[in-house]
Amino acid sequence: MSDTGRQSFTDKASAALKPDSEKSTTEHLGDKVKGNADSAGSTLQPQSEKSYGQKAGDTLSGNSNNNDESMMDKAKNALGMNNNK
């Protein structure tokens, strides 16, 4: 479960698993806005205040604020599903 004010893990997974070629412009923009808001939330929330689940979710989504590519993006790139990189 994600912490209050953060994007749910279900929403992140849904957005990440749908191929970019099948997303509308609105979906692309929504994903970008939600991702940026979640990244800001990750930056503003001290590690000491994050739940264990949120820490794990941030690590898996690459949202640990060190500009690493997320594991999901790495998988999408390997499968040729990430068209915007």
UniProtKB/TrEMBL annotation:
**Entry protein name:** Heat shock protein 9/12
Task: Read off the InterPro entries from this record.
Answer: HSP9_HSP12 (IPR007250)
Task: Please list where the region (Disordered) is annotated.
Answer: 1-85
The biased composition feature labelled Basic and acidic residues covers: 19-35
Biased-composition ranges for Polar residues? 1-11, 39-51, 60-69
Among the Pfam families in the record, one is: HSP9_HSP12
Which Gene3D superfamilies does UniProt cross-reference here?
6.10.250.2440
